[in-house]
Q: What sequence folds into this?
């Protein structure tokens, strides 16, 4: 069961934090408030779908600095920047680096609420994809080195006899390895293996299917 999403507000102005908290709580969001980037990093919310409403100018590390730090994490929370001191160049950089929105004060409340909803959905999807990738990596870890090689070659569309020749194996051995790969990876088809190899970063230059 998924936990309730969290909206984290990082702004050094107590009145702004209060106003944003009232707005977001009235919209039904669970809210956590922080006065600085460092305070947020010391108490990052639990691993639940979340969004970060972030001021650009903060004491100590700036909002942009915090964005850079969070980008190093596996599933960084989507960021909605709110600022009274932004410019076009800063907004472009923030969006290019993954921010969902860059709002300049004063902004319409609905703009912020819409951006937060988009952010929560983006984070849900990112968390789902990350969990799937971790599951795939767990399955991959069950393969022997030889099964790993066979999987990659099968995903390239090579026939058993070609794989056998390339790996200096018999066709019967390749078929046995293929069966193990299919079972361990829980693949229903070659297309499944191709998709898995791509998601795992194992895809090589494609080759035409062998006859």
A:
């Amino acid at each position: 069961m998924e936990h309730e999403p969290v909206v984290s507000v990082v702004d050094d102005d107590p009145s702004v934090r209060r106003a944003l908290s009232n707005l977001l709580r009235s919209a039904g969001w669970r809210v956590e408030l922080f006065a600085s980037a460092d305070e947020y990093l010391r108490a990052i919310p639990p691993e639940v779908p979340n969004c970060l409403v972030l001021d650009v100018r903060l004491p100590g590390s700036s909002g942009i600095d915090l964005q850079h730090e969070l980008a190093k994490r596996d599933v960084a929370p989507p960021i909605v920047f709110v600022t009274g001191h932004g410019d076009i160049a800063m907004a472009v950089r923030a969006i290019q680096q993954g921010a969902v929105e860059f709002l300049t004060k004063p902004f319409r409340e609905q703009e912020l609420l819409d951006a937060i909803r988009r952010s929560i959905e983006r984070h849900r999807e990112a968390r789902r994809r990350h969990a799937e990738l971790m599951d795939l990596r767990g399955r991959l870890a069950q393969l022997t080195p030889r099964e790993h090689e066979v999987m990659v070659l099968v995903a390239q569309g090579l026939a058993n006899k070609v794989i056998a020749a390339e790996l200096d194996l018999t066709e019967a051995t390749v078929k046995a390895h293929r069966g193990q790969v299919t079972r361990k990876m829980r693949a229903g088809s070659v297309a499944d293996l191709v998709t898995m190899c791509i998601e795992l970063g194992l895809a090589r230059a494609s080759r035409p299917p062998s006859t």
Residues 205-211 have pLDDT under 50 and may be disordered. The two ends are 48 Å apart (CA to CA). The beta strands are 6-10, 30-34, 50-55, 79-83, 101-104. DSSP finds nine helices and five strands in the chain.
